[in-house]
Amino acid sequence: MTLQALIFDVDGTLAETEELHRQAFNETFAEWGLDWSWSRDDYRVLLKTGGGKERIAAFQATLPEGARRLSGDEIKALHKDKTTRYGALIAHGHLELRPGVADLIEKAREAGLKLALATTTSRPNVEALTRACWGKAAADVFPVIASGDEVAHKKPDPEIYNLALKRLGLPPKDCMAFEDSRIGLHSAMGAGLPVVVTPSLYTDEEEHMGAAHRIPDLSRQNWPLMLVARLCSD
């Protein structure tokens, strides 16, 4: 393996975003006049379904007979409103990168590694995060981006990682994926990638069998030896 690219998940991997997503969902539900309110325990279960619109559909499938249900078009509209609300929450400074993320990305860029994202979240959410955390457009931080609104099948399906690899023009053996969740791990492994897992607030109780490494965060002291050799040869 000749390490040439790093491919990152976004939510939970770059930053602990899931609480903001949950807040944005609940505020949007209230705005729509729905009596839905997702607790942390609810959301931990719902995160096993990749994609916000898919999460809404999975939730309402569990509602009792006679409860209000949204049509497919209504789900899309509600999710669009939620995305706008999430972006506003981030813009007001309610987000910071997880430990080590900024340092790793800077060192990777200096070493000439390619940087990519493979995320089930939508492109507007990606833009909101990079604007808040780097003060830059997403493409200025991650030249290759595969986002959830570009694929038919969300994680744990490997489609999003296959798309990122296609855009990188590299085989999976020359790349390393970074994830925080089991569904993300399975998605990356399904594309043939070695995976570094840094469990997040909502995935710390999961098993991550098959990961090349499972570490608390991306602080330099936790970097896998391959990264140390590739990025810190000076």
TrEMBL record:
Q: Do you know which InterPro entries this protein is assigned to?
A: CbbY-like (IPR044999), HAD-like_sf (IPR036412), HAD-SF_hydro_IA (IPR006439), HAD_sf (IPR023214), PGP-like_dom2 (IPR023198)
Highest taxon listed in the record's lineage:
Bacteria
Q: Keywords of this protein's UniProt record, alphabetized?
A: Hydrolase
* MF-aspect GO terms: hydrolase activity
Q: Where is the signal peptide?
A: none
**Which Pfam families does this one have?**
Hydrolase (PF00702)
Listed name of the protein: HAD superfamily hydrolase (TIGR01509 family)
Q: Which organism is it from?
A: Rhodovulum adriaticum (Rhodopseudomonas adriatica)
